[in-house]
Amino acid sequence: MIVPDKIVDYIAPYLLEQTLFPIESDKYGFMKFDKEQIDKALSKLKVLAIGMGWGEGKENGKILEYILENYEIKVLIDADGLNILAKLDKSILNKTKCKIVLTPHLKEFERLSSIPMDEIKKSPETYAKEFAKKYGIVLLLKGNKTIVTDGERGYIVDRGCPGMATAGSGDVLSGILSGLLGYNEINVKTIAGGAYLAGMAGELAQKDKNDISMIASDTIKKIPEAINLIREK
Known about the structure:
By secondary structure, this protein is an alpha/beta fold. It has helices at residues 8-11, 35-42, 60-70, 80-87, 92-95, 106-113, 117-122, 124-135, 169-181, 188-208, 216-221, 223-232; strands at 2-4, 21-23, 47-50, 74-77, 99-102, 138-141, 146-149, 154-157.
């Protein structure tokens, strides 16, 4: 986890398996843009997931641009990373050597594409496919059904449940996808498979809890069981 140094003491007690790489922060607690520190943090990475809980610090745009312009790794962009990307010149996606997957919900996709959300809802598969093809990325569009496309091929994933409409579920999905991308390439099958796994784990969690009281960590606890079920089938 690459985090601003000012929050390390607050989050370290909650991290049992993860390692921490602090980057100098400004007086507000946001990361500063420091090429040397970023290079050290990313030096051995195969996959970078960026944006979850990141905030919209004034230098985050510089950090994202620097990574996309100077690295050749797999990058998953979600949450605040998508909002920051929406403010940049998106032609950077065509120029980068990184392999990119974007995981927006409808409102985030509206910001990225500049297409009104009501219009997107009329034909989400079409707009997702056009966007993915234009920028050469894999797009996972969240909604009642999850659409995954690279502009040529696509999948619709119908796994999931009402209980997953809770804070942090999108972060769980990003974590699952990042884990899978550690040993698979970014393509529609890998990303759709991750969405399927997350949805199935959520369904199992809802059976144990219920659609009102389950939280995102309940889904995490059911990932092993979901993997076993998928293997069995």
